[in-house]
Amino acid sequence: MMKARKFFAEHIFPPLLGLGMFVLVWGMVTQTSENLPGPMKTWDSAVVLFSDPFYQNGPNDQGIGWNVLNSLGRVGIGFSLAALIGIPLGFMIGRFNFLNKMTSPIVSMLRPVSPLAWLPIGLLVFNASNPAAIWVIFISSIWPMIINTAMGVRQLPQDYLNVARVLNLSEWKIFTRILFPATLPYMLTGIRLAIGTAWLVIVAAEMLTGGVGIGFWVWDEWNNLNVEHIIIAIFIVGIVGLLLETMLVRIAKRFSY
Amino acid sequence: MKSYVQIENVQMSFSTRQGEFVALKDIDLKIERGEFITLIGHSGCGKSTLLNLIAGLLLPTDGVMLCADREIAGPGPDRGVVFQNHSLLPWLTCFDNVYLAVERVFGATEDKALLRQRTKEALALVHLSHAEQKYPHEISGGMKQRVGIARALSMQPRVLLMDEPFGALDALTRAHLQDELMKIVAATNSTVVMVTHDVDEAVLLSDRIVMMTNGPAATIGEILTVDLPKPRNRLALATDARYHALRGGVLEFLYQKQAKEAA
Ligand SMILES: Nc1ncnc2c1ncn2[C@@H]1O[C@H](COP(=O)(O)OP(=O)(O)OP(=O)(O)O)[C@@H](O)[C@H]1O
Ligand SMILES: [Mg+2]
User: Which end is more exposed in chain A, N or C (fewer Cβ atoms within 10 Å of the end residue's Cβ)?
Assistant: First the structure.
Protein backbone atom coordinates (compact mmCIF):
# COMPACT_ATOMS: atom_id res chain seq x y z
CA MET A 1 0.00 0.00 0.00
CA MET A 2 2.77 2.39 1.04
CA LYS A 3 4.78 1.26 -1.92
CA ALA A 4 2.02 1.93 -4.41
CA ARG A 5 1.57 5.35 -2.87
CA LYS A 6 5.25 6.14 -3.13
CA PHE A 7 5.32 4.97 -6.72
CA PHE A 8 2.38 7.21 -7.53
CA ALA A 9 3.94 10.20 -5.78
CA GLU A 10 7.28 9.77 -7.50
CA HIS A 11 6.46 8.54 -10.97
CA ILE A 12 2.82 9.21 -11.84
CA PHE A 13 1.98 12.46 -10.09
CA PRO A 14 4.76 14.75 -11.45
CA PRO A 15 4.10 14.10 -15.17
CA LEU A 16 0.34 14.37 -14.59
CA LEU A 17 0.81 17.68 -12.85
CA GLY A 18 3.02 18.90 -15.68
CA LEU A 19 0.49 17.93 -18.33
CA GLY A 20 -2.33 19.44 -16.30
CA MET A 21 -0.53 22.74 -15.99
CA PHE A 22 0.33 22.67 -19.68
CA VAL A 23 -3.35 22.28 -20.60
CA LEU A 24 -4.30 24.98 -18.08
CA VAL A 25 -1.84 27.50 -19.53
CA TRP A 26 -2.95 26.56 -23.03
CA GLY A 27 -6.58 27.16 -22.00
CA MET A 28 -5.77 30.53 -20.44
CA VAL A 29 -3.73 31.75 -23.38
CA THR A 30 -6.44 30.81 -25.87
CA GLN A 31 -9.12 32.57 -23.80
CA THR A 32 -7.78 35.91 -25.02
CA SER A 33 -7.38 34.87 -28.66
CA GLU A 34 -10.23 34.20 -31.03
CA ASN A 35 -8.15 32.33 -33.64
CA LEU A 36 -6.42 29.77 -31.44
CA PRO A 37 -8.63 26.90 -30.28
CA GLY A 38 -8.52 25.88 -26.64
CA PRO A 39 -8.12 22.38 -25.20
CA MET A 40 -11.84 21.58 -25.16
CA LYS A 41 -12.43 22.57 -28.76
CA THR A 42 -9.37 20.63 -29.87
CA TRP A 43 -10.45 17.57 -27.91
CA ASP A 44 -13.91 17.56 -29.52
CA SER A 45 -12.36 17.85 -32.93
CA ALA A 46 -9.90 15.03 -32.15
CA VAL A 47 -12.72 12.72 -31.09
CA VAL A 48 -14.39 13.24 -34.47
CA LEU A 49 -11.12 12.83 -36.32
CA PHE A 50 -10.12 9.61 -34.63
CA SER A 51 -13.56 8.05 -34.84
CA ASP A 52 -12.84 7.31 -38.50
CA PRO A 53 -9.09 7.36 -39.07
CA PHE A 54 -9.01 5.23 -42.23
CA TYR A 55 -11.61 6.71 -44.58
CA GLN A 56 -10.72 7.31 -48.20
CA ASN A 57 -12.34 10.09 -50.25
CA GLY A 58 -10.00 10.27 -53.19
CA PRO A 59 -6.29 11.04 -53.25
CA ASN A 60 -6.40 14.33 -51.36
CA ASP A 61 -8.90 13.51 -48.65
CA GLN A 62 -7.95 10.51 -46.56
CA GLY A 63 -8.20 9.61 -42.89
CA ILE A 64 -5.56 10.71 -40.41
CA GLY A 65 -4.40 7.10 -40.04
CA TRP A 66 -3.49 6.93 -43.73
CA ASN A 67 -1.60 10.19 -43.51
CA VAL A 68 0.49 9.01 -40.59
CA LEU A 69 1.13 5.61 -42.19
CA ASN A 70 2.22 7.20 -45.45
CA SER A 71 4.68 9.44 -43.66
CA LEU A 72 6.02 6.52 -41.68
CA GLY A 73 6.37 4.55 -44.90
CA ARG A 74 8.49 7.27 -46.48
CA VAL A 75 10.62 7.54 -43.39
CA GLY A 76 10.97 3.75 -43.33
CA ILE A 77 12.16 3.50 -46.93
CA GLY A 78 14.53 6.47 -46.84
CA PHE A 79 15.89 5.42 -43.50
CA SER A 80 16.43 1.78 -44.52
CA LEU A 81 18.26 2.80 -47.66
CA ALA A 82 20.44 5.10 -45.58
CA ALA A 83 21.18 2.27 -43.15
CA LEU A 84 21.96 -0.10 -46.00
CA ILE A 85 24.56 2.27 -47.38
CA GLY A 86 25.60 4.29 -44.33
CA ILE A 87 26.43 1.46 -41.94
CA PRO A 88 28.78 -0.51 -44.21
CA LEU A 89 30.33 2.78 -45.27
CA GLY A 90 30.82 3.69 -41.61
CA PHE A 91 32.54 0.35 -40.99
CA MET A 92 34.93 0.88 -43.85
CA ILE A 93 35.68 4.46 -42.90
CA GLY A 94 36.34 3.39 -39.33
CA ARG A 95 38.56 0.47 -40.29
CA PHE A 96 40.65 2.06 -43.01
CA ASN A 97 42.35 5.29 -42.13
CA PHE A 98 42.93 6.16 -45.77
CA LEU A 99 39.22 6.05 -46.48
CA ASN A 100 38.57 8.10 -43.39
CA LYS A 101 40.91 10.86 -44.52
CA MET A 102 39.41 10.66 -47.99
CA THR A 103 35.79 11.07 -46.93
CA SER A 104 36.03 13.23 -43.83
CA PRO A 105 36.07 16.60 -45.64
CA ILE A 106 33.00 15.64 -47.65
CA VAL A 107 31.10 14.38 -44.63
CA SER A 108 32.03 17.40 -42.52
CA MET A 109 30.96 19.76 -45.27
CA LEU A 110 27.65 18.13 -46.19
CA ARG A 111 26.47 17.12 -42.74
CA PRO A 112 25.49 20.59 -41.50
CA VAL A 113 23.45 21.32 -44.64
CA SER A 114 19.72 21.44 -43.96
CA PRO A 115 18.16 18.33 -45.46
CA LEU A 116 15.50 20.41 -47.20
CA ALA A 117 18.17 22.00 -49.34
CA TRP A 118 18.44 18.62 -51.06
CA LEU A 119 14.75 18.57 -52.01
CA PRO A 120 15.09 20.45 -55.31
CA ILE A 121 17.86 18.07 -56.36
CA GLY A 122 15.57 15.15 -55.60
CA LEU A 123 12.69 16.71 -57.52
CA LEU A 124 14.98 17.34 -60.46
CA VAL A 125 16.47 13.86 -60.56
CA PHE A 126 13.39 11.81 -59.79
CA ASN A 127 10.82 14.06 -61.39
CA ALA A 128 8.26 13.05 -58.78
CA SER A 129 7.45 14.25 -55.30
CA ASN A 130 7.32 10.93 -53.47
CA PRO A 131 10.84 9.73 -54.30
CA ALA A 132 12.09 13.26 -53.67
CA ALA A 133 10.72 13.18 -50.12
CA ILE A 134 12.29 9.76 -49.59
CA TRP A 135 15.56 11.15 -50.93
CA VAL A 136 15.50 13.94 -48.37
CA ILE A 137 14.96 11.41 -45.58
CA PHE A 138 17.81 9.33 -46.96
CA ILE A 139 20.21 12.26 -46.97
CA SER A 140 19.24 13.46 -43.52
CA SER A 141 19.59 10.08 -41.85
CA ILE A 142 22.75 8.83 -43.53
CA TRP A 143 25.18 11.17 -41.74
CA PRO A 144 24.55 10.10 -38.15
CA MET A 145 24.77 6.47 -39.22
CA ILE A 146 28.09 6.88 -41.03
CA ILE A 147 29.61 9.00 -38.29
CA ASN A 148 28.54 6.90 -35.32
CA THR A 149 29.40 3.57 -36.90
CA ALA A 150 32.84 4.84 -37.87
CA MET A 151 33.36 6.21 -34.38
CA GLY A 152 32.39 2.87 -32.85
CA VAL A 153 34.90 1.04 -35.02
CA ARG A 154 37.63 3.51 -34.16
CA GLN A 155 36.95 3.27 -30.43
CA LEU A 156 37.36 -0.49 -30.44
CA PRO A 157 39.54 -1.20 -27.39
CA GLN A 158 43.06 -2.35 -28.22
CA ASP A 159 42.50 -5.25 -25.80
CA TYR A 160 39.94 -6.84 -28.08
CA LEU A 161 42.17 -6.42 -31.09
CA ASN A 162 45.02 -8.02 -29.15
CA VAL A 163 42.77 -11.01 -28.45
CA ALA A 164 42.09 -11.22 -32.16
CA ARG A 165 45.79 -11.03 -32.93
CA VAL A 166 46.82 -13.64 -30.39
CA LEU A 167 44.15 -16.02 -31.67
CA ASN A 168 45.09 -15.06 -35.20
CA LEU A 169 41.43 -14.80 -36.21
CA SER A 170 40.36 -14.42 -39.81
CA GLU A 171 39.02 -11.05 -40.99
CA TRP A 172 35.54 -12.54 -41.14
CA LYS A 173 35.72 -13.84 -37.56
CA ILE A 174 37.14 -10.51 -36.40
CA PHE A 175 34.16 -8.82 -38.00
CA THR A 176 31.43 -11.12 -36.67
CA ARG A 177 32.86 -11.81 -33.23
CA ILE A 178 34.58 -8.56 -32.35
CA LEU A 179 34.07 -5.62 -34.68
CA PHE A 180 30.33 -5.92 -35.19
CA PRO A 181 29.26 -6.59 -31.59
CA ALA A 182 31.65 -3.95 -30.26
CA THR A 183 30.27 -1.38 -32.69
CA LEU A 184 26.62 -2.29 -32.29
CA PRO A 185 25.86 0.16 -29.46
CA TYR A 186 27.38 3.04 -31.45
CA MET A 187 25.48 1.94 -34.52
CA LEU A 188 22.23 1.97 -32.58
CA THR A 189 22.99 5.49 -31.35
CA GLY A 190 23.43 6.51 -34.97
CA ILE A 191 20.16 4.84 -35.91
CA ARG A 192 18.36 6.58 -33.07
CA LEU A 193 19.66 9.98 -34.04
CA ALA A 194 18.88 9.26 -37.67
CA ILE A 195 15.28 8.26 -37.08
CA GLY A 196 14.79 11.33 -34.89
CA THR A 197 16.00 13.64 -37.64
CA ALA A 198 14.11 11.74 -40.31
CA TRP A 199 10.85 12.17 -38.45
CA LEU A 200 11.58 15.88 -37.95
CA VAL A 201 12.33 16.36 -41.60
CA ILE A 202 9.45 14.41 -43.12
CA VAL A 203 6.84 16.92 -41.92
CA ALA A 204 8.67 19.80 -43.55
CA ALA A 205 9.41 17.85 -46.72
CA GLU A 206 5.79 16.80 -47.17
CA MET A 207 4.61 20.37 -46.70
CA LEU A 208 6.62 21.18 -49.79
CA THR A 209 5.95 18.10 -51.88
CA GLY A 210 2.29 17.40 -51.14
CA GLY A 211 0.67 13.98 -51.41
CA VAL A 212 -0.81 11.93 -48.59
CA GLY A 213 1.16 12.40 -45.38
CA ILE A 214 1.07 14.12 -42.04
CA GLY A 215 3.15 17.08 -43.28
CA PHE A 216 0.91 17.77 -46.21
CA TRP A 217 -2.13 17.27 -44.03
CA VAL A 218 -0.94 20.11 -41.78
CA TRP A 219 -0.49 22.33 -44.81
CA ASP A 220 -3.89 21.38 -46.15
CA GLU A 221 -5.59 22.11 -42.84
CA TRP A 222 -3.82 25.46 -42.75
CA ASN A 223 -5.32 26.27 -46.11
CA ASN A 224 -8.71 25.20 -44.74
CA LEU A 225 -7.99 27.34 -41.65
CA ASN A 226 -8.75 24.33 -39.49
CA VAL A 227 -6.45 25.26 -36.61
CA GLU A 228 -7.71 22.48 -34.30
CA HIS A 229 -6.40 19.93 -36.76
CA ILE A 230 -3.02 21.63 -36.90
CA ILE A 231 -2.73 21.41 -33.15
CA ILE A 232 -3.80 17.76 -33.26
CA ALA A 233 -1.16 17.16 -35.92
CA ILE A 234 1.48 18.66 -33.64
CA PHE A 235 0.48 16.21 -30.92
CA ILE A 236 0.48 13.28 -33.35
CA VAL A 237 3.95 14.13 -34.67
CA GLY A 238 5.21 14.48 -31.11
CA ILE A 239 3.71 11.22 -29.91
CA VAL A 240 4.85 9.18 -32.91
CA GLY A 241 8.36 10.61 -32.53
CA LEU A 242 8.32 9.69 -28.86
CA LEU A 243 7.22 6.13 -29.66
CA LEU A 244 9.95 5.69 -32.26
CA GLU A 245 12.54 6.97 -29.83
CA THR A 246 11.32 4.76 -26.98
CA MET A 247 11.33 1.72 -29.23
CA LEU A 248 14.94 2.29 -30.26
CA VAL A 249 16.08 3.03 -26.71
CA ARG A 250 14.55 -0.31 -25.71
CA ILE A 251 16.45 -2.10 -28.46
CA ALA A 252 19.68 -0.29 -27.62
CA LYS A 253 19.36 -1.29 -23.96
CA ARG A 254 19.36 -4.93 -24.92
CA PHE A 255 22.74 -4.52 -26.59
CA SER A 256 24.65 -2.55 -23.97
CA TYR A 257 27.19 -4.83 -22.38
CA MET B 1 70.35 -28.80 -26.46
CA LYS B 2 68.69 -25.70 -27.75
CA SER B 3 66.39 -23.75 -25.47
CA TYR B 4 62.72 -23.47 -26.15
CA VAL B 5 62.49 -19.72 -26.16
CA GLN B 6 65.63 -17.79 -26.99
CA ILE B 7 65.97 -14.07 -26.61
CA GLU B 8 69.30 -12.72 -27.79
CA ASN B 9 70.50 -9.17 -27.53
CA VAL B 10 67.04 -7.79 -27.85
CA GLN B 11 66.42 -4.07 -27.76
CA MET B 12 63.05 -2.39 -27.82
CA SER B 13 62.55 1.30 -28.39
CA PHE B 14 59.37 3.25 -28.92
CA SER B 15 59.18 6.40 -30.96
CA THR B 16 57.48 9.00 -28.82
CA ARG B 17 56.82 12.70 -29.15
CA GLN B 18 60.02 13.36 -27.22
CA GLY B 19 61.91 11.19 -29.68
CA GLU B 20 63.27 7.67 -29.35
CA PHE B 21 62.54 5.98 -26.00
CA VAL B 22 64.65 2.91 -25.27
CA ALA B 23 62.54 0.70 -23.02
CA LEU B 24 64.58 -2.52 -23.09
CA LYS B 25 68.24 -3.08 -23.89
CA ASP B 26 70.61 -6.05 -24.06
CA ILE B 27 68.02 -8.61 -23.07
CA ASP B 28 69.37 -12.16 -23.13
CA LEU B 29 67.23 -14.99 -21.85
CA LYS B 30 66.85 -18.66 -22.58
CA ILE B 31 63.80 -20.51 -21.40
CA GLU B 32 63.68 -24.30 -21.28
CA ARG B 33 60.68 -26.42 -22.06
CA GLY B 34 58.44 -26.87 -19.02
CA GLU B 35 60.09 -24.06 -17.13
CA PHE B 36 58.17 -21.56 -15.02
CA ILE B 37 59.70 -18.09 -15.29
CA THR B 38 58.51 -14.99 -13.50
CA LEU B 39 59.47 -11.46 -14.47
CA ILE B 40 59.68 -9.06 -11.58
CA GLY B 41 60.75 -5.43 -11.38
CA HIS B 42 59.50 -1.99 -10.50
CA SER B 43 56.54 -0.50 -12.29
CA GLY B 44 57.38 0.83 -15.73
CA CYS B 45 60.62 -1.12 -16.10
CA GLY B 46 59.38 -3.01 -19.13
CA LYS B 47 57.97 -6.32 -17.94
CA SER B 48 54.85 -6.09 -20.07
CA THR B 49 56.96 -4.98 -23.00
CA LEU B 50 59.14 -8.08 -22.69
CA LEU B 51 56.09 -10.34 -22.39
CA ASN B 52 54.46 -8.71 -25.42
CA LEU B 53 57.67 -9.26 -27.36
CA ILE B 54 57.54 -12.98 -26.63
CA ALA B 55 53.83 -12.96 -27.52
CA GLY B 56 54.69 -11.28 -30.82
CA LEU B 57 52.34 -8.39 -30.15
CA LEU B 58 55.42 -6.16 -30.37
CA LEU B 59 58.41 -6.68 -32.61
CA PRO B 60 61.89 -5.90 -31.28
CA THR B 61 63.83 -3.01 -32.79
CA ASP B 62 66.97 -5.08 -32.57
CA GLY B 63 68.04 -8.60 -31.69
CA VAL B 64 66.73 -12.10 -32.25
CA MET B 65 63.72 -13.82 -30.71
CA LEU B 66 63.08 -17.49 -31.31
CA CYS B 67 60.41 -19.86 -30.13
CA ALA B 68 60.89 -23.54 -30.91
CA ASP B 69 63.69 -22.52 -33.30
CA ARG B 70 61.39 -20.29 -35.32
CA GLU B 71 61.65 -16.55 -35.37
CA ILE B 72 58.82 -14.80 -33.56
CA ALA B 73 57.32 -12.67 -36.31
CA GLY B 74 53.90 -12.02 -34.83
CA PRO B 75 51.37 -13.37 -32.39
CA GLY B 76 50.11 -16.90 -32.81
CA PRO B 77 48.05 -19.49 -31.00
CA ASP B 78 51.18 -21.43 -30.02
CA ARG B 79 51.75 -18.72 -27.42
CA GLY B 80 48.67 -18.34 -25.25
CA VAL B 81 48.32 -15.00 -23.52
CA VAL B 82 46.46 -14.24 -20.32
CA PHE B 83 46.02 -10.49 -20.35
CA GLN B 84 46.37 -8.32 -17.29
CA ASN B 85 42.72 -7.22 -17.52
CA HIS B 86 41.36 -10.61 -18.62
CA SER B 87 40.15 -9.18 -21.98
CA LEU B 88 37.10 -11.37 -22.32
CA LEU B 89 34.67 -10.37 -25.02
CA PRO B 90 31.65 -9.04 -23.12
CA TRP B 91 29.09 -10.12 -25.71
CA LEU B 92 30.09 -13.78 -25.57
CA THR B 93 29.34 -16.22 -22.75
CA CYS B 94 32.25 -17.76 -20.88
CA PHE B 95 31.76 -20.86 -23.00
CA ASP B 96 31.82 -18.91 -26.26
CA ASN B 97 34.86 -16.91 -25.20
CA VAL B 98 36.81 -20.13 -24.77
CA TYR B 99 35.18 -21.78 -27.79
CA LEU B 100 36.41 -18.96 -30.03
CA ALA B 101 39.99 -19.91 -29.15
CA VAL B 102 39.40 -23.66 -29.36
CA GLU B 103 37.71 -23.32 -32.73
CA ARG B 104 40.60 -21.31 -34.11
CA VAL B 105 43.25 -23.84 -33.07
CA PHE B 106 41.46 -27.16 -33.59
CA GLY B 107 38.56 -26.20 -35.88
CA ALA B 108 40.33 -27.37 -39.02
CA THR B 109 40.93 -30.91 -37.78
CA GLU B 110 38.15 -31.70 -35.32
CA ASP B 111 34.37 -31.74 -35.45
CA LYS B 112 32.02 -29.57 -33.42
CA ALA B 113 31.33 -32.13 -30.71
CA LEU B 114 35.02 -32.47 -30.03
CA LEU B 115 35.51 -28.71 -29.97
CA ARG B 116 32.71 -28.34 -27.46
CA GLN B 117 34.21 -31.06 -25.35
CA ARG B 118 37.58 -29.33 -25.33
CA THR B 119 35.90 -26.10 -24.28
CA LYS B 120 34.08 -27.82 -21.45
CA GLU B 121 37.27 -29.48 -20.30
CA ALA B 122 39.15 -26.18 -20.24
CA LEU B 123 36.45 -24.58 -18.13
CA ALA B 124 36.31 -27.61 -15.85
CA LEU B 125 40.05 -27.28 -15.31
CA VAL B 126 39.52 -23.89 -13.68
CA HIS B 127 36.37 -25.10 -11.89
CA LEU B 128 33.96 -22.97 -13.86
CA SER B 129 31.67 -25.56 -15.38
CA HIS B 130 28.74 -24.01 -13.52
CA ALA B 131 29.35 -20.59 -15.13
CA GLU B 132 29.63 -21.73 -18.74
CA GLN B 133 26.54 -19.91 -19.92
CA LYS B 134 27.14 -16.73 -17.95
CA TYR B 135 28.35 -13.50 -19.48
CA PRO B 136 31.55 -11.87 -18.22
CA HIS B 137 29.66 -9.07 -16.44
CA GLU B 138 27.72 -11.68 -14.49
CA ILE B 139 30.76 -13.25 -12.82
CA SER B 140 33.34 -12.03 -10.30
CA GLY B 141 36.79 -10.65 -11.11
CA GLY B 142 38.50 -13.85 -10.03
CA MET B 143 36.18 -15.92 -12.20
CA LYS B 144 36.87 -13.71 -15.21
CA GLN B 145 40.57 -14.16 -14.70
CA ARG B 146 40.02 -17.92 -14.59
CA VAL B 147 38.07 -17.85 -17.85
CA GLY B 148 41.02 -15.94 -19.33
CA ILE B 149 43.33 -18.68 -18.11
CA ALA B 150 41.01 -21.38 -19.45
CA ARG B 151 40.95 -19.64 -22.82
CA ALA B 152 44.74 -19.57 -22.95
CA LEU B 153 45.09 -23.17 -21.75
CA SER B 154 42.42 -24.48 -24.13
CA MET B 155 44.64 -23.70 -27.09
CA GLN B 156 47.27 -26.03 -25.65
CA PRO B 157 49.91 -23.39 -26.27
CA ARG B 158 53.56 -24.27 -26.22
CA VAL B 159 54.14 -21.27 -24.02
CA LEU B 160 51.72 -19.68 -21.59
CA LEU B 161 52.29 -15.95 -21.19
CA MET B 162 50.62 -14.20 -18.27
CA ASP B 163 50.75 -10.50 -17.49
CA GLU B 164 50.04 -10.02 -13.79
CA PRO B 165 47.13 -12.44 -14.02
CA PHE B 166 46.31 -12.17 -10.34
CA GLY B 167 47.27 -8.54 -9.84
CA ALA B 168 43.77 -7.19 -9.40
CA LEU B 169 42.53 -9.92 -7.07
CA ASP B 170 42.19 -10.07 -3.31
CA ALA B 171 44.72 -12.12 -1.35
CA LEU B 172 42.45 -15.11 -0.76
CA THR B 173 41.37 -15.49 -4.37
CA ARG B 174 44.93 -14.97 -5.49
CA ALA B 175 46.24 -17.75 -3.25
CA HIS B 176 43.50 -20.04 -4.47
CA LEU B 177 44.29 -19.37 -8.13
CA GLN B 178 48.03 -19.75 -7.55
CA ASP B 179 47.41 -23.20 -6.12
CA GLU B 180 45.22 -24.10 -9.08
CA LEU B 181 47.79 -22.79 -11.52
CA MET B 182 50.51 -24.88 -9.91
CA LYS B 183 48.38 -28.01 -10.31
CA ILE B 184 47.49 -27.22 -13.91
CA VAL B 185 51.08 -26.48 -14.87
CA ALA B 186 52.26 -29.68 -13.18
CA ALA B 187 49.60 -31.69 -15.00
CA THR B 188 50.20 -30.18 -18.44
CA ASN B 189 53.93 -29.55 -18.08
CA SER B 190 53.49 -26.12 -19.68
CA THR B 191 56.18 -23.57 -20.24
CA VAL B 192 55.13 -20.40 -18.48
CA VAL B 193 56.33 -16.81 -18.44
CA MET B 194 54.50 -14.70 -15.89
CA VAL B 195 54.80 -11.05 -14.95
CA THR B 196 54.26 -10.26 -11.30
CA HIS B 197 54.68 -7.55 -8.68
CA ASP B 198 54.41 -9.99 -5.85
CA VAL B 199 57.62 -11.39 -4.32
CA ASP B 200 55.88 -14.27 -2.55
CA GLU B 201 54.09 -15.25 -5.72
CA ALA B 202 57.36 -15.23 -7.64
CA VAL B 203 59.13 -17.50 -5.16
CA LEU B 204 56.16 -19.82 -4.76
CA LEU B 205 55.63 -20.45 -8.46
CA SER B 206 58.93 -20.04 -10.29
CA ASP B 207 61.76 -22.20 -11.35
CA ARG B 208 63.67 -19.01 -12.07
CA ILE B 209 62.94 -15.40 -11.18
CA VAL B 210 64.09 -12.87 -13.74
CA MET B 211 64.69 -9.56 -11.98
CA MET B 212 64.79 -6.47 -14.12
CA THR B 213 66.60 -3.21 -13.54
CA ASN B 214 64.77 0.09 -13.59
CA GLY B 215 64.05 1.77 -16.88
CA PRO B 216 64.69 3.49 -19.15
CA ALA B 217 66.87 1.07 -21.05
CA ALA B 218 66.01 -1.63 -18.55
CA THR B 219 67.69 -4.98 -18.77
CA ILE B 220 67.90 -8.20 -16.80
CA GLY B 221 69.66 -7.48 -13.52
CA GLU B 222 69.86 -10.90 -11.93
CA ILE B 223 68.31 -14.30 -12.39
CA LEU B 224 67.50 -16.23 -9.24
CA THR B 225 67.07 -19.98 -9.43
CA VAL B 226 64.39 -21.28 -7.09
CA ASP B 227 65.43 -24.81 -6.25
CA LEU B 228 62.63 -25.57 -3.83
CA PRO B 229 61.20 -29.03 -4.50
CA LYS B 230 57.79 -29.36 -6.17
CA PRO B 231 54.95 -29.68 -5.48
CA ARG B 232 55.15 -26.71 -3.19
CA ASN B 233 52.88 -26.00 -0.33
CA ARG B 234 52.49 -22.43 0.85
CA LEU B 235 51.99 -23.41 4.47
CA ALA B 236 55.05 -25.61 4.60
CA LEU B 237 57.11 -22.93 2.87
CA ALA B 238 56.16 -20.36 5.48
CA THR B 239 58.54 -22.00 7.92
CA ASP B 240 61.14 -23.03 5.34
CA ALA B 241 64.49 -21.25 5.75
CA ARG B 242 65.38 -21.64 2.04
CA TYR B 243 62.12 -19.99 1.07
CA HIS B 244 62.92 -17.00 3.26
CA ALA B 245 66.45 -16.78 1.91
CA LEU B 246 65.15 -16.68 -1.66
CA ARG B 247 62.50 -14.17 -0.74
CA GLY B 248 65.17 -12.06 0.94
CA GLY B 249 67.23 -12.23 -2.24
CA VAL B 250 64.43 -10.80 -4.36
CA LEU B 251 63.61 -8.12 -1.80
CA GLU B 252 67.25 -7.11 -1.60
CA PHE B 253 67.41 -6.75 -5.37
CA LEU B 254 64.22 -4.71 -5.55
CA TYR B 255 64.67 -2.47 -2.54
CA GLN B 256 68.43 -2.10 -2.27
CA LYS B 257 70.10 -2.63 -5.60
CA GLN B 258 67.22 -1.19 -7.62
CA ALA B 259 65.76 1.03 -4.91
CA LYS B 260 63.32 3.53 -6.29
CA GLU B 261 61.97 6.65 -4.67
CA ALA B 262 58.27 6.34 -4.04
CA ALA B 263 56.60 7.40 -7.23
N1 LIG C 1 53.61 1.92 -26.93
C2 LIG C 1 54.50 2.59 -26.18
N3 LIG C 1 54.96 3.79 -26.59
C4 LIG C 1 55.86 4.47 -25.83
N5 LIG C 1 56.36 4.05 -24.67
C6 LIG C 1 55.93 2.86 -24.20
C7 LIG C 1 54.97 2.08 -24.93
N8 LIG C 1 54.73 0.95 -24.23
C9 LIG C 1 55.49 1.04 -23.13
N10 LIG C 1 56.22 2.18 -23.10
C11 LIG C 1 57.17 2.59 -22.07
O12 LIG C 1 58.04 1.52 -21.84
C13 LIG C 1 58.30 1.40 -20.43
C14 LIG C 1 57.96 0.00 -19.97
O15 LIG C 1 56.54 -0.19 -20.01
P16 LIG C 1 55.85 -1.53 -19.54
O17 LIG C 1 54.42 -1.39 -19.76
O18 LIG C 1 56.55 -2.68 -20.19
O19 LIG C 1 56.20 -1.51 -17.97
P20 LIG C 1 55.82 -2.59 -16.88
O21 LIG C 1 57.09 -3.06 -16.30
O22 LIG C 1 54.90 -3.60 -17.42
O23 LIG C 1 55.07 -1.69 -15.80
P24 LIG C 1 53.87 -2.10 -14.83
O25 LIG C 1 54.46 -2.97 -13.79
O26 LIG C 1 53.43 -0.79 -14.27
O27 LIG C 1 52.83 -2.77 -15.66
C28 LIG C 1 57.51 2.48 -19.75
O29 LIG C 1 58.36 3.55 -19.46
C30 LIG C 1 56.48 2.87 -20.76
O31 LIG C 1 56.19 4.23 -20.63
MG1 LIG D 1 52.77 -4.11 -17.12
Answer: N
pLDDT digits (tens, 9 = 90+) for A220-252: 889 988 889 999 999 999 999 999 999 988 888
pTM over 0.80: no
Which helix H or strand E contains B10, and what residues bound it? Answer: strand B5-16
> Which residue in B52, B81, B87, B155 has the most chain A C-beta atoms within 10 A of its own C-beta, making it the best mutation to test that interface?
B87
CA-based nearest residue in chain B for residue A165:
B75
Q: How far is CA A67 from CA A195, A236, B33, B53, in A?
A: 18, 11, 75, 64
Report d(CA B96, CA B148) in Å as an integer: 12
B96 three-state secondary structure: helix
Does residue B116 contact residue B99 with C-beta atoms inside 8 Å? yes
Question: Closest ligand 1 atom to the C-alpha of B49?
Answer: 18
Cβ within 8 Å, pair A159-B87: yes
The order of strands in the sheet holding B220-225 is B79-82, B159-163, B191-195, B36-40, B208-212, B220-225
Q: Could you read off the pLDDT of A170-214 as tens digits, one per residue?
A: 889 999 999 999 999 999 999 999 999 999 999 999 999 888 899
